[in-house]
Design a protein that fits this description.
The protein is α+β, with helices and mostly antiparallel strands and about 190 residues long. About 25% of the residues lie in helices and about 30% in strands. It is built from 3 helices and 10 strands, in the order E-E-E-E-E-H-E-H-E-E-E-H-E. The strands form 2 sheets. Strands 1-3-8-9-10 form a 5-stranded mixed beta sheet, with no helix packed on it. Helix 1 packs across helix 2. It is globular and about 65 Å long. It starts with 18 loop residues before the first strand and ends with a strand.
Amino acid sequence: MSHGPHASGHHHPPSPPEKRIHLVQGEHVVTSDPNAVLVTLLGSCVAACIRDPVAGVGGMNHFLLPGEDDRADAMRRGVHAMEMLVNGLLTQGARRERLEAKLFGGARMVDGLTDVGSKNGAFAERFLEREGIKYAGGSLGGDQARRIQFWPVSGRVRQLLVERQDDAVFQSERVRVRAPVVAPSDGAVELF
């Protein structure tokens, strides 16, 4: 293949820039845009990154099972967050049997409080198992917040651990408000 202009005189356009889409708690995004990168900041919350590699569509959610509520209500809310994402994928051409998921988050952020993070992670793993969705790994637990970047079409994920000194995340965990978006450090780890 020649790299110059074709006989018709057309040039290949430069590849478009990445479209960063930030998610906060309670949101989910599904896209088949190969230039999209879904970004979120997780403490005890969990993000499921699910895609269908054949259909070329993927998505991410960001949810927290409320620790204070009764268990049935918390489970219902978690199931709702996961089903919204899965159904969003299916409406864009994904097939349930081809879905693969990676899970992130679920850290223990505040000492002395119930470990909602591990409950969130365990819930998400059980959901995938029950729904027959392939679990392709990820990173759950620990005591550090994570910034996750997910390229939903390729399935690539990058995780950046957020240092304890980054108080904004820990404050947000205590008061449950939106965490500010902080510029990523260069301590990036390519996971997949």
